[in-house]
Design brief:
The chain is mostly helical. It is built from three helices and no strands. The longest helix has 33 residues.
Amino acid sequence: MVRLMGNVLVFGLTLLLLSSCAGAVKEIRSYKIEKKREPLNLEDPLPLELRDVDWIIITKDNAEEVFSKIKEDGGEYSLFALTDKGYEKLALNFADIRNKLAEQRQIILSYKEYYENGGE
């Protein structure tokens, strides 16, 4: 009798578990709402306006003359010197800066085109 009850209980639990797994699966619905991209309201940046810098080339032949002229004009002087190799590196650095700015500008233009033309 105990064995019969045990079998009925095991069979009943198995049937209950299997029937609960076999229930209807709810379908998940997804919606796609297309929204038109808004154009970017970015103004074109103004061109960079740099200040003029006066370069004075000092050599061993004109050093005293340049220093006395600066003193006559009421100015103070300090030396910021570059070797020919240092000047070359400075010019290469400015070229790298120009290239990086051009690269960033192209990225911004690409984003602007993507958003305003719908990514096509």
